[in-house]
Amino acid sequence: MAEVTQLKRYDVPRINWGKWFLIGVGMLVSAFILLVPMIYIFVQAFSKGLMPVLQNLADPDMLHAIWLPVWLAVLGVPVSLVFGV
């Protein structure tokens, strides 16, 4: 008579709720830390309307403050690419 072999039973992977809970809490805290200051900055910037914001965008100091990080990124990314930092 032929031997009966038992099929292998693969267990369904269980969801690790503790891991996902901690990941969710971490994401919520990170979003809170990033979004609350950003929202506050935009609310304060536009509290007197759009016109003061547009006037400030034409100010040379504001243009320099915007251009400087862009310029540093343009320089820094190729340097990091070359040196592998």
UniProtKB/TrEMBL annotation:
It is a multi-pass membrane protein. SUPFAM superfamilies: MetI-like (SSF161098). Its main location: membrane. GO terms for molecular function: ABC-type sulfate transporter activity. Keywords: Membrane, Transmembrane, Transmembrane helix, Transport. The keyword Transmembrane applies. It is found in: Membrane. Signal peptide: none annotated. The chain crosses the membrane at residues 20-43, 63-83. GO terms for cellular component: plasma membrane. PANTHER family: SULFATE TRANSPORT SYSTEM PERMEASE PROTEIN, SULFATE TRANSPORT SYSTEM PERMEASE PROTEIN CYSW. This is Sulfate/thiosulfate transporter permease subunit. It comes from Salmonella enterica subsp. enterica serovar Wilhelmsburg. The gene is cysW.
